[in-house]
Amino acid sequence: MFETLKVRLGQGHRTNDFPGQPPCLPDRFRGVPTLDASRCTAGCQECAAACPTSAIMLSPFRIDLGKCLFCPICAEACPQEAIQFGPDYRLAANNRTDLILSSEQERKLAAALNQSMRRLYGRSLKLRQVSAGGCSGCEAELIALGNVVFDLARFGIQFVASPRHADGLVITGPVTNNMRHALMETYAAIPSPRLVIAVGACAISGGPVAGAGMAGDGIPSGIPVDLYIPGCPPHPLTVLDGLLRLLGRIKTPAA
Q1: Which of 4, 30, 65, 210 allows an S-S link to 230, with CB 3.0 to 4.6 Å?
Q2: To the nearest 10°, the Cα dihedral for 153, 117, 179, 189?
Q3: What is the CB-side half-sphere exposure of residue 117 using CA atoms within 13 A?
Q4: What is the pLDDT of residue 96?
Q5: Which are the contacts of 112, defined by CB distance < 8 A and separation ≥ 6?
Q6: How far apart, in whole angstroms, are the C-alpha atoms of residue 67 and residue 208?
Q7: What average pLDDT is seen over the chain?
């Protein structure tokens, strides 16, 4: 026990100062991609052909972050280096269309809820998470939010066991046939007004299993989504950034 305390004291303060200071991310981290349409060669389709989820669109040159797995395959396949993944972890958006990234349009980050909703959830937000057929990658990153480094609870955000005690629903996974009914029942059990947050490529678009017979293409249309957090899986800071923007704790400039 004393050895454990000694080691813990030697580690010092582990909780990051997010959002007060820029986070320290590993060199291998892949965030928001940058697209350079001027580098594209007419007729070149290597990047689009290599993408495993058809996230890249040509004419005009765009990438769907809701489908993107943030793998380096497209960047490696592009002979002109028109796609490069950068270190920007800020990916969350309020609308599905805002996840379509191009070199011509400015990217829209998630904006805050209206004043009445912020008054309800700004200091205390309880979330019920449903893994609707996920691989456990996104789920593991959500669990990491509760550790000493990210400490989600310091912002008044907690995951709860019952939808009856929740203010919102966090959905991961492509929504398989076997989980669709359970997801709809969980959504219906959360008292209104309720928030819905889609985490990961599978929940947003079906991800790598889109179009499969037993898996859906993400959250069904009967569930309106308030926040999309792309990634495969998204980094805990990407999730945290999106949640705090939604609650107005991080200011997003008006478009």
Answers
A1: 65
A2: 100
A3: 15
A4: 97
A5: 118, 245, 246, 247, 248, 251, 252
A6: 8
A7: 92
Instruction: Decide: 128 and 160 in contact? Cβ < 8 Å.
Output: yes
* Contact between 201 and 66 (Cβ < 8 Å): yes
Per-residue DSSP letter, 131: E
Overall average pLDDT of the 25-29 stretch: 91
Backbone angles phi, psi at 100, to 5 degrees: -85, 115
Task: Specify the range with the lowest mean pLDDT, choosing from 82-86, 120-124, 140-144, 246-250.
Answer: 120-124
Percent of the chain surpassing pLDDT 70:
95
Average pLDDT on 42-47 reads: 79
Residue with tokens 């080691």: 7
- The H or E element spanning position 118 is helix 115-121
User: What gap in Å lies between CA 9 and CA 66, rounded to an integer?
Assistant: 42
The candidate with the shortest Cα–Cα distance to 143, out of 162, 129, 164, 123, is: 129
- What is the pTM assigned to this prediction? 0.93
| Token output for 2 | 């004393």
Helix axes 137-144, 236-246, angle to 10 degrees: 70
Distances, alpha carbon 68 to alpha carbons 54, 146, 207, 252, in Å = 8, 26, 8, 23
How many Å apart are CA 133 and CA 214, to the nearest integer? 10
The alpha-carbon radius of gyration of the chain (Å, integer) is 19
What pLDDT, on a 0 to 100 scale, did the predictor assign at position 122? 82
